[in-house]
Specification:
about 290 residues; binds zinc ion
């Protein structure tokens, strides 16, 4: 291996070679960057590693190393306008999708804005409403989560939950106005898989494809399979990772604030968030899969 490698990667390479496996290092690897990386075991199965290096399997095959940049470093080094805008369809998406990123950006002196397109009226109620409507409950929960995540500006519209795909002409103009108003440097939303496959997530991701800000998508590593196998194939590979060290508890508290929703508890166990840096000219596939709202 003639490539210059960081000590961590050298150890990895040695382990792989001891197992008589082949290693492919992507051309983007730069040993001078403190990159996080993960190991995928190909072709048989995957190694669950939650973004960290995991002891390698003894089985033969090819190991691919996928390097991820530290998104906190990108936020720190950013020289332009420091306005981060996360845009999601439902109350709770901001916490699940980018709770850690919002907290991190705020700590680094960024202005943080969360734009939520619906009040979550189609969500399920898992607690007693005490005379309140689901929208009222979810708005109160969202405000509590936003205060835990120290969001500077929470902007909520009341478009129909579950119908963003059909009503795109109704909300698209409004959304453009929010982007013009705040003029964010970074915009974050879900990738084209929608992560859960919710059509609102996918519609919004499609609508935000051509924004004039740097665009990142919330995504998950290939080995974290939530639900539908079809979605799994449409998911964009993470290019960036965020370590939740020191802020994981706050994110968990924000998740708990959305108490009417049964949020997947295992997400609280992830010690990372993952993002895909969208390439402006690249074609990303999408598909509306069957989804029960
Ligand atoms: Zn959602």
């Amino acid at each position: 291996m003639s490539l210059l490698m960081s000590p961590a990667v050298q150890v990895l390479v040695q382990e792989i070679e001891e197992q008589n496996c082949r290693l492919e290092i992507p051309f983007c690897y730069n040993p001078n960057h403190d990159c996080e990386f993960k190991v995928l075991h190909y072709p048989a199965g995957v190694i669950r590693n939650f973004g960290e290096l995991w002891p390698l399997s003894r089985a033969g095959g090819i190991f691919y190393i996928q390097f991820m940049k530290d998104i906190k470093q990108e936020l720190t080094a950013w020289k332009g306008r420091k306005v981060l805008m996360v845009i999601y369809p439902h109350p709770d998406d901001e916490t699940m999708g980018a709770g850690g990123l919002l907290l991190t950006a705020k700590k680094l002196g960024w202005q943080t804005v969360a734009v939520i397109l619906t009040k979550g009226g189609a969500g399920q109620m898992h607690v007693h409403p005490n005379g309140r409507t689901i929208k009222e409950m979810r708005m109160a929960e969202l405000e509590k989560a936003a205060s835990i995540l120290q969001i500077d500006d929470l902007v909520v519209a009341d478009y129909d939950d579950g119908k963003l795909r059909q009503h795109r002409s109704r909300w698209e103009k409004w959304l453009k106005q929010q982007i013009i108003k705040y003029h964010p440097a970074w915009i974050v939303t879900f990738d084209h898989s929608g992560i859960s496959g919710h059509p609102d997530h996918i519609s919004l991701s499609l609508a935000l494809r051509k924004v004039s800000a740097k665009l990142y998508w919330t995504t998950l590593p290939q080995d974290l399979n939530l639900g539908n196998k079809e979605l799994f194939k449409l998911r964009s590979a993470p290019t960036h990772i965020l370590k939740l060290r020191g802020i994981g508890l706050k994110k968990w508290q924000a998740m708990k604030a959305h108490r009417s929703q049964k949020l997947p508890g295992r997400v609280a166990l992830y010690r990372f968030e993952w993002y895909h840096e969208v390439e402006p000219r690249k074609k990303y596939p999408h598909k509306f899969v069957e989804f029960k709202i």
